[in-house]
Amino acid sequence: MLWRHLAVYVFTLSQSLALAFQFQASSSINPRRTLSSSPILQSSSCKKRSCLHLAVQVSDAMSTIDAFYKSSPYEAAFFTCGIKASAADFLAQTRELKAASLKEEKTDEQIEFERNLAFILYGCLYQGIAQYYIFNILFPLWFGQGHDLTSVIVKVAFDMTVISPFLCLPIAYLTKAAIYGQSVKEGLSKYKYDFMEKNLLGKYCMIWVPAQFCTFGIIPDHLRIPFIAVISFFWLILLSTVSSAEVEADESI
């Protein structure tokens, strides 16, 4: 009996010592290295690093763009609005060609690059350079630099009742008329027709009144033109379609 108890005691002691040494050996290993050796944890860590790297790249890109709009406002406005105007008119023409193809089996109509050039010039020169000067240089001189509700209402009202009907929209039609070799009178007559018969200004105000409230009340000064460019992308699609309708009507007569 004594030998049996002694054997059990020795076996138990040896097992305890073995477990103790095994625990000590495992605790001496770097736990971070042990955890990182797991394929699942390695994959998760790689994804986190990739997301973090992407976030840093996006942040750096946004900082660079923001600095560009601050340091070179006219150049930034020129390129931003020119590219935007070209894309908007191209999309409008593509939509018109698809609509025409649904009505007729065959059509010889193609993308009008002269028309697209007209809107590029309009975007670069007026919506880019001129609007930056008007909204960020002249408006603060005329109406102050405040962002309160009263100041914003005055700026939006002046834009909708003076700038837009007497400068913005006529320039768009005159630019297109010049590209097509038409006279100033013809360009203005088309503008008058769309203004009186197609509710051009009403459509303009539906988009631009709420947008300009954001422009003058919320958006930082150096980012006003990029914000306007985003909104005017959709406006130029509408304007390009409306302004081309009379030309198509004349050609069908």
Structural write-up:
The protein has helices spanning 2-27, 31-36, 39-71, 73-103, 113-143, 149-179, 184-197, 200-217, 224-252. The longest helix is centred in the first third of the chain and has 33 residues, at 39-71. The termini are far apart. Helix content is 87%, strand content 0%. It contains nine helices and no strands. It is mainly α and 253 residues long. It has one domain (65-252).
Number of DSSP-assigned strands: 0
Shape: globular
Structural class: mainly alpha
Please describe the biggest sheet, giving its number of strands, its sense, and whether it closes into a barrel.
none
Distance between the termini: 123 Å
The amount of helix comes to: over 70%
Number of helices: 9
Rg for CA atoms: 34 Å
How are helices and strands ordered from N to C? Answer: HHHHHHHHH
Beta-strand proportion: under 5%
Uncertain segments: 1-36
The number of domains: 1
Q: If you average the pLDDT, what whole number results?
A: 78
